[in-house]
Amino acid sequence: MVGTRTTGVVSGPAQAYLLADNTLLSFPAEHHLGHNREVIDRIGVPPDHYVPLTPQDTAAGRDPALAKALTLLHK
């Protein structure tokens, strides 16, 4: 992966439980693990090649992550 760490929002759909006082409690029904079985929910996945996007890149219309990815494809 090229770019920055993902947002970490990877848990599955929530399972709702109705409590005795009629409130609803929701928990994700599933969680995903990274390739080394590490928890990635709320943490995200680190990229193999860290390439941050700066405000200057955005203003200039540059995409440094795409540029890096293209160099990796041509190796």
List keywords for this structure.
alpha+beta; about 20% helix; elongated; about 80 residues; two-stranded antiparallel ribbon; two-stranded parallel ribbon; single chain; about 20% strand; 2 helices
Description of the molecule:
The protein is of the alpha+beta class and 75 residues long. It has one domain. 21% of the residues lie in helices and 19% in strands. The protein has 2 helices and 4 strands. It has a two-stranded parallel sheet with strand order 1-4. Strands 2-3 form a two-stranded antiparallel ribbon. A hairpin with a 5-residue loop joins strand 2 and strand 3. The longest helix is centred in the last third of the chain and has 10 residues. The radius of gyration is 19 Å and the shape is elongated. The two termini are 15 Å apart. The model has no long low-confidence stretch (mean pLDDT 86).
Please report the total strand number as a whole number: 4
Distance between the termini: 15 Å
> What would you call the shape?
elongated
Helix content: 10-25%
Rg, please? 19 Å
Mean pLDDT: 86
Q: Which percent band covers the strand fraction?
A: 15-25%
Largest sheet: 2 strands, parallel
The sequence of SSEs as H and E is: EEEEHH
Supply the number of helical segments: 2
The strand line-up of the biggest sheet is 1-4
Our count of domains comes out at 1
How would you classify the helix and strand content by structural class?
A: alpha+beta
Task: Identify low-pLDDT runs.
Answer: none
